[in-house]
Amino acid sequence: MLTFSLYPIDDYLEVRLEGDLDIDGTEIIEEELIPSLKNHQYIKINFEHVPFVDSSGMGLLMNVVQTLKATSAKVKVINVKGEVMEIFELLQLPDILGESVFE
After folding, report:
1. What is the CATH number of domain 3-101?
2. How far apart are CA 9 and CA 65, in angstroms?
3. What does the H/E/C string look like for 32-60?
4. Residue 84's pLDDT is what?
5. pTM for this prediction
6. What is the mean pLDDT of the chain?
């Protein structure tokens, strides 16, 4: 089960995700996380505790980043595990969202 916590740090908001980012996280991301981020200008999404992402999870991540970018927010995805980043790169997620999104 996916959970998230919000931590205001200096000039940005850190979103710490925990658990698998998959179809089960859809409701949490779309109904709880995205609305709670819309008033922030600089957001870091921490993937340190996300061991698995499936295709629906990638769609969710794309939706989050694109929705926030539409509000002029700057979004960074940080601490992505190697095996998860390999999947992101295989599916060209950095190319789609922009290399600058990933740290």
Report:
1. 3.30.750.24
2. 19
3. HHHHHHCCCCEEEEEEEECCCECHHHHHH
4. 95
5. 0.93
6. 93
